[in-house]
Amino acid sequence: MRQPPQPELSRRGTASRADVFDASETTVLRVLEALRPVQTPTVVDSIFDALEDVLGLDYVPDEDEISDLSLRMRGYLMRLVGVAPEDKDFTVLVERARALLDVEVPQDFIGIRVHLRRMALTALGLLDLLAPFSE
Question: What is the dihedral of CA 83, 86, 87, 89, to 10 degrees?
């Protein structure tokens, strides 16, 4: 089974900003603005809801929820890959997303949760690049 790429470390040895979960109103508004031409606000809201579920510190999904959440995250990741521009800044994340979409989903509870978190972090990284911070 092929392993998906791991998050890259910045020069300072910490995870890049793509690995930080930020669902603040400012971030949501930036993402909505960047995705407006290709996604409806309802879709973007549902992506952030799924990210909040998967990346939430206290969230432990039931086994019944895992299948639905996994399908939703796969769909969102495919949508984000589809709207990502062909740009060098997106290359690593798009390749990581494609690898996660190609890999066989683990069958054990912990493996599935790890896979979900990797998909969510990759989706968050794509969202971050699609709606960069205004200078």
Answer: 50
Site of tokens 């890959």? 81
The yes-or-no verdict on residue 24 having pLDDT over 80 is: no
Side-chain-side CA neighbours of residue 112 (13 Å): 16
**Mean pLDDT within 67-71:** 87
Q: Is 31 exposed, middle or buried (0-12, 13-18, 19+ CB in 10 A)?
A: buried
Give mean pLDDT, residues 47-58: 86
Inter-residue contact 83 to 90 (CB < 8 Å): no
Task: Tell me the DSSP string of 34-95.
Answer: HHTTTS-HHHHHHHHHHHHHHH-TT----HHHHHHHHHHHHHHHHHHHHHS-S-HHHHHHHH
Q: With a cut of 90, say whether residue 37 has pLDDT above it.
A: no
